[in-house]
Amino acid sequence: MKARPAITAIELIQFGFELQDIGQEPTIGIPIYKPGSTLQSGGNAIKIHTDTGVTGEFVGGAPTDYAAIRGFARSLIGRQALERDKIYNDVKQATRQIARMGQGVVDIALWDLAGKFYDAPIYELLGGHQQKLKCYASTYIGDREPDGLATPEAYADFAEQCYDIGYRAFKIHGWQEATIEEQIELVHAVGRRVGDKMDLMLDPFCALDTFGDALKLGLACDEENFFWYEDPLKDGGVSAHAHKKLRQMIKTPFLQLEHLRGLESHVDFIVAEATDFVRGDAVYDGGITGIMKIAHAAEGFGLDVELHVAGPAQRHLMASMRNTNYYEMGLLHPKAGPFGGPIYKDGYRDAIDAIDENGCVDIPEGPGLGVDYDWDFITANQTGSQTIQ
Length: 389
Ligand SMILES: [Mg+2]
Fold this sequence. Notes:
The chain is an alpha/beta fold. The protein has helices at 63-72, 84-94, 103-118, 122-125, 152-165, 180-194, 211-223, 240-249, 263-271, 287-301, 312-318, 375-380, and strands at 7-24, 31-50, 56-59, 133-139, 169-172, 199-202, 228-230, 254-256, 277-280, 305-307, 327-332, 360-361, 382-388.
C-alpha cells in the first residue's frame, strides 16, 4: 500500500487581472456590462502540500474564504489528507461562527489531492460516470447599454442567439433596478419568443422589495410555463415562511437555498416545504463532500439538486449525481465574456461557445479536478500569498 499523505503546508495565493467592458452595478457592486470600462478583478488559489509530494490545488472561492482559512489552517498541518469527512466536520465546527467560510475551498483541494493520489478523476472516486452535461445559458444581470441586456426584447434576442448556439435552456438574471411591470414584461418577452423550445428560468437575485412583487412576477412565470423561479425576495432567499407561502400561490417550481449554507439548513428548508429544486454550491456548502451529502439528502426527499455556476468541481459532481438537471453556463452576455480570468492552460473553458452542438459539456478526465491551472499566469499576476506550515 502507498504511504498515506499528511498535510505539511497550505499555500494561499491572491492574484489580479483586468476585465474589459465590465463595470460594477452601483447598488450591490456585482459585475455588469459597461463598454469602455475596465474592472480590476482577481482570484484566489490554494495548494495543499503533503509529505509524499502529492498536492491538492483549487482556484476559486472569495477573499472571505481565504481570510477564514488563515484562521484554521494551522490545525490541518500534520493531518491525514485523505480523511476528508473528518476534516469536513472539524472545519465545519471551527468555522461555525463565520458561516463556514473556507470549508468548501479546503475540501475541493483535498478531493483534487485524493484524485492525484489514486490517479483517478474525482467523478470516478464518487462512483460517477463520464457523460454529457446539459447546460443552460445563464445571463449577466441586466444593464442599460444600447447593445446590452437593456430591454425585455434584448433578452429575448439573446435567448434566441443562445438557442442557435445549441442551448435548450435559458436563465434570466434581470435588472437590479426596474419596475415590477418591466420585470413582468421581461418574463413575457422571453416566454413568447422561445418558451416553446427552451426551458426557462428566472433569477431576480433577491432584488424584489416586496412579497407582493415576488407574487406578481411568479404568476407571470406561471403564464409562460417557466421551469423554475429562483430567489425573488430581498430577504436574501432565506425565509422558509415567505417561500412556503409563495409556493402555495405560484405554480412554477421554486429553486432556493443558494444562500443558506450546508446540509442541515438545506434539509430544514426542504422539510419546511419552502422549495422545489435544491440549490447547491461547492464553495458555499462544504465542498464536494458537502454537496454529495446534500445530493443524497435531496435524493431521499425525491428532489433534484441544481449546482450553482460553472467549474470543474461542478462537472465532477454532476457526473456523480442522478438527481440533477442542468449545468449553469455563465454568466453570459451578448457582448462581454466570462468573469473568471485565464486560469487554465489545458483548454478547459466555461464560456458561451464552450458547449457542443447538443448544448452539452464533458467532464475533465485527468486525475483530481482534471484541469491544468496556469500557474505561470497566476504567479505573474500575484498580489499576495501566505504559506501556513
Ligand atoms: Mg442564483
